[in-house]
Design a protein that fits this description.
Number of helices: 7
CATH topology: Peptide Methionine Sulfoxide Reductase, Chain A
Helix content: 40-55%
Number of domains: 1
Largest sheet: 6 strands, mixed
CATH architecture: 2-Layer Sandwich
Strand content: 15-25%
Shape: globular
């Protein structure tokens, strides 16, 4: 019995040490200097985390000026995260999307508006049925201008709802592209149970309240 208590005590000690290390690593990510992604062929990139990336991908691909949305992982402290590793909640990463857009057609500010309009902004560590730190809401900024836009909109929404807004605000560091089978998931798997019962209804709710002139037709 004494040996069992010794083992449990050591396990708890190492668990606490790991948690402390992880928190320290996560804090470094939060305090880091943002990385600014240069325009490529006139197109810009923005990064958002808001629950399951299948849902978020569909939302942003319905917006005019958005060329492509890539699913992946961001916001954490481990290299080369995988879907399985991210789901443990131990990588620090959240499921995220890379939005490739034409800044002459749609602004970063509008993309942030779409972000808040497409989710429950007060839900902590998840969206809908997807719960855990890997599904938490994060908006990534690449410079002070973007950071100010995010903070102003977050503050205005908090005042409007008279509630705390769950979205975290992180300096962008790196985006890790998810496995191939996660890309274009809603379009390729329209009859999937999750897509039909969670993803598509979330997209429809967003489209119903977002300005029609900002949305692609028949999408």
């Amino acid at each position: 019995m004494r040996n069992l208590f010794t083992i449990l005590a050591l396990a708890l000690l190492f668990s606490c040490q790991n948690a402390a290390q992880n928190n320290e690593k996560q804090q470094k990510v939060i305090n880091a200097t943002p990385v600014e992604v240069p325009l490529e062929n006139g197109k810009a990139k923005a990064y958002f985390a808001s629950g399951c990336f299948w849902c978020v991908e569909a939302v942003y691909e319905s917006i005019k000026g958005v060329d492509e949305v890539i699913n992946g992982y961001s916001g954490g402290y481990t290299d080369n995260p995988t879907y399985e590793a991210s789901n443990t909640g131990r990588t620090g990463h959240a499921e995220a999307v890379e939005v490739i857009y034409d800044p002459k057609v749609v602004s970063f500010s509008t993309l942030v508006d779409a972000y808040f309009a497409s989710q429950n902004p007060t839900q902590v560590n998840g969206q809908g049925p997807d719960k855990g730190s890997q599904y938490r809401s994060i908006i990534f900024y690449q410079n002070e201008e973007q950071k100010n836009i995010i903070l102003e909109k977050k503050q205005a929404l908090a005042k409007q709802l008279d509630a705390k807004i769950a979205a975290e605000v992180y300096p962008f560091q790196k985006f890790w592209v998810a496995e191939d089978y996660h890309q274009n998931y809603e379009r390729l798997h329209p009859n999937n149970g999750y897509i039909r019962n969670v993803s598509i209804p979330r997209l429809k709710r967003f489209q119903a309240q977002f300005p029609k002139e900002l949305l692609k037709e028949n999408h």
